Amino acid sequence: MTEGPLNSLLLRLAPAALAGLMRLWFATCRVHVHDRDKFPDPMRTGKPVIASFWHYSLVYQFYFLRGHQATVMVSASRDGEYIARLAGHFGFSAARGSRNHKGAEGLKTLFRAIREGRSCALVADGSQGPPRVAQPGAILLASRGGLPVVPMMWSADRYFTVRSWDRTAIPKPFARVDFYFGEPLHVPAELSAEGIEEYRLLLEGRLNELYATAWGRYDRDGH
Q1: Would you tell me how many other CB atoms lie within 10 Å of the CB of residue 11?
Q2: What's residue 103's pLDDT?
Q3: For residue 96, what are the β-bridge partners?
Q4: According to the model, what pLDDT value does residue 100 have?
Q5: Whose CA is closest to 120, among 68, 44, 168, 186?
Q6: Number of domain units in the chain
Q7: Dist CA 60 CA 159 (whole Å)
Q8: I need a labelling partner for 16 at 20 to 30 A (CA). Which of 6, 22, 93, 121 fits?
Q9: Is 104 a member of any domain?
Q10: What b-and-e string marks burial along 106-123, b requiring 16 or more CB atoms within 10 Å of the CB?
Q11: Rounded CA gap, 144 and 1, in Å?
């Protein structure tokens, strides 16, 4: 019974503390944004989009996109609850995927957000990978919701990596961060299963091209 109250306390305190640390930490970084004109910024245009990026970049993405008030897909796991609350501190709401229904409940929440005029964000390679292999969620959402998918990527001259399946990367204090926007991917409405797969591969290719460009800036093959 002691685990419950302790976990509840951590859920209240840890995301808030981490969000505060991230704001202080990342504020020291020098950020250069590439191809900003490719990003149809919802805060300027009033038109929602679907943001898509690889899982390794998630921590800094929360900070960079803070204030956009998008709805993000988050795993239904216990760790996902921490991520959902952390996202809330940066202005995002969370769509929780169902373990039993493999994210179907989360996608339903994202569809409702689109109907309400909100942007959405999906980690392209999901919460468990494999890394840099796109899953079909963003394409399905774009096809049914009529929104463009905007690839996003960042690289840094100095960073830490976490021992995880995706080698989550975190810029070091005072690092130079290069943030890239890719060409929006416009997905036809009501795609068949074959069409979903075609555009899934297209999104995967665009994300990996952007990944190569971002890390190639520092003469690296990747992070």
Answers
A1: 15
A2: 63
A3: 74
A4: 52
A5: 68
A6: 1
A7: 11
A8: 121
A9: yes
A10: bbebbbebbeeebbbbbb
A11: 44
Lookup: tokens for 220: 């690296």
Helix (H) or strand (E) holding 185: none
In this structure, is residue 193 part of a structural domain?
yes
- Cα-based angle 51, 87, 131 (whole degrees, multiple of 5): 55
List the chain residues with pLDDT less than 50.
1-2
By the 8 A CB rule, do 152 and 58 touch?
Answer: no
**Which stretches of 67-103 are DSSP H helices?**
78-89
CA 124 to mean position of chain CA atoms = 7
Torsion angle of alpha carbons 167, 172, 178, 183, nearest 10°?
30
Tokens of 80: 């996902």
- Residue that is written with structure tokens 């501190």 in the block: 89
Q: pLDDT, tens digit, for every residue of 135-175?
A: 999 999 999 999 999 999 999 999 999 999 999 999 999 99
Confirm whether 221 is domain-assigned.
no
Range of the domain at 52: 3-216
Strands 176-181 and 149-156, sheet pairing: antiparallel
Q: How many residues does the chain have?
A: 223
Q: What is the CATH number of the domain that holds 23?
A: 3.40.1130
pTM of the model: 0.90
Structural domain contains residue 98: yes
- Residue 212's pLDDT is 98
The Cα–Cα gap between 57 and 168 comes to 6
